[in-house]
């Protein structure tokens, strides 16, 4: 069957599908791993480990871009808007993971962070053919859910994924701020977004396997980005997660530990304060630190946009 032919069921043959050679750094061969298949297991792991050491340094080099992205996200969320992740493959799956972990960790409203994955939910578990090449699909999805004032973060290792770039273009047209996070510092799309974060992780140990260094870098950036946003929005007190949702015994125990750690009170006092606060850790904390009843602590939090330090300042004045 010749190129361009059609199978009996009407689907194009593999030869008829377009092929694009990507010039991103992650597609190049790593000179340190050219004999990878000849190495011992320990040597394979040593090469991978040595390559992974480059990732934190590469992330440190783009902190200014992460700072700018955090500021955009805080502005959006304080204004009643949302943060969107649009990604494909490993990058998109990492976006889904980051967004999914924020509500149980920080009790953030679930609509704050929205993750969009090329190919839909099925793509979390298997590759969906040609989904990442559909720029119109990304644009259509963004046009249907992104609003002016939102922040849209595009996630792509190469910096050229059509689904992601289509979503970013449509989001800009809607009046949203845009960020591109990738592992290609020279990505041409850098000029089309407000903030560009190009992490220079270099060639992968297995050429093109961006679930490795590129994926690790994106995980680090997303973790630091979303955590910093939650800190700026008052969902952390000191270095403690005071908005934690007690969905299991371990987390209920963590609430008690936090109250004991911050106030130095006996465990039974912490338990009683938490009961009087109807299980709300922030209310119990403000109550114990300031010495007021739970009702007064709750009112102070309401007057200070649910900020513990703000509530304590109000009660101290």
Write the layout of secondary structure elements.
Elements: H1 41-52, H2 54-60, H3 63-78, E1 83-87, H4 89-106, E2 113-117, H5 135-145, E3 151-155, H6 162-174, E4 177-182, E5 195-198, H7 213-232, H8 249-263, H9 267-276, H10 281-290, H11 294-303, H12 308-316
Parallel strand pairs: 1-2, 1-3, 3-4, 4-5
Description:
- The chain has a five-stranded parallel β-sheet, with helices on both faces.
- The protein is 48% helix and 8% strand.
- It has helices spanning 41-52, 54-60, 63-78, 89-106, 135-145, 162-174, 213-232, 249-263, 267-276, 281-290, 294-303, 308-316; strands at residues 83-87, 113-117, 151-155, 177-182, 195-198.
- The protein is globular, with a radius of gyration of 24 Å.
- With 317 residues, it is an alpha/beta fold.
- Helix 8 (249-263) packs across helix 9 (267-276) and helix 8 runs parallel beside helix 10.
- The longest helix has 20 residues, at 213-232.
């Amino acid at each position: 069957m010749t190129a361009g032919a059609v199978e009996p069921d009407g689907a194009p043959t593999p030869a008829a599908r377009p092929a694009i050679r990507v010039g991103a750094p992650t597609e190049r061969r790593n000179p340190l791993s050219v004999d990878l298949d000849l190495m011992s297991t320990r040597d394979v792991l040593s090469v991978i480990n040595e390559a992974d050491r480059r990732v934190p340094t590469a992330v440190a080099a783009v902190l200014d871009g992460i700072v700018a992205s955090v500021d955009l996200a805080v502005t959006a969320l304080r204004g009643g808007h949302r943060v969107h992740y649009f990604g494909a493959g490993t990058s998109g799956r990492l976006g889904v993971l980051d967004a999914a972990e924020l509500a149980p960790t920080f009790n953030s409203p679930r609509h704050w962070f929205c993750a969009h994955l090329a190919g839909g939910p099925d793509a979390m578990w298997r590759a969906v053919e040609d989904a990442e090449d559909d720029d119109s699909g990304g644009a259509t999805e963004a046009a249907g859910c992104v609003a002016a004032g939102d922040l849209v973060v595009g996630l792509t290792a190469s910096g050229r994924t059509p689904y992601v770039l289509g979503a970013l273009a449509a989001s800009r047209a809607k009046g949203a701020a845009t960020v591109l996070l990738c592992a290609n510092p020279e990505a041409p799309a850098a000029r089309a977004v407000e903030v560009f974060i190009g992490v220079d992780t270099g060639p992968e140990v297995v050429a093109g396997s961006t679930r490795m260094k590129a994926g690790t870098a994106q995980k680090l950036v997303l973790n630091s980005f979303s955590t910093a946003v939650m800190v700026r929005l008052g969902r952390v007190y000191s270095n403690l997660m005071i908005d934690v949702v007690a969905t299991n015994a371990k987390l209920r125990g963590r609430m008690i530990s936090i109250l004991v750690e911050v106030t130095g009170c006996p465990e039974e006092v912490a338990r009683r304060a938490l009961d009087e606060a109807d299980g709300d850790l922030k209310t119990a904390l403000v109550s114990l630190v300031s010495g007021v009843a739970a009702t007064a602590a709750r009112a102070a939090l309401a007057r200070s946009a649910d900020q513990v330090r703000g509530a304590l300042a109000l009660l101290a004045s």
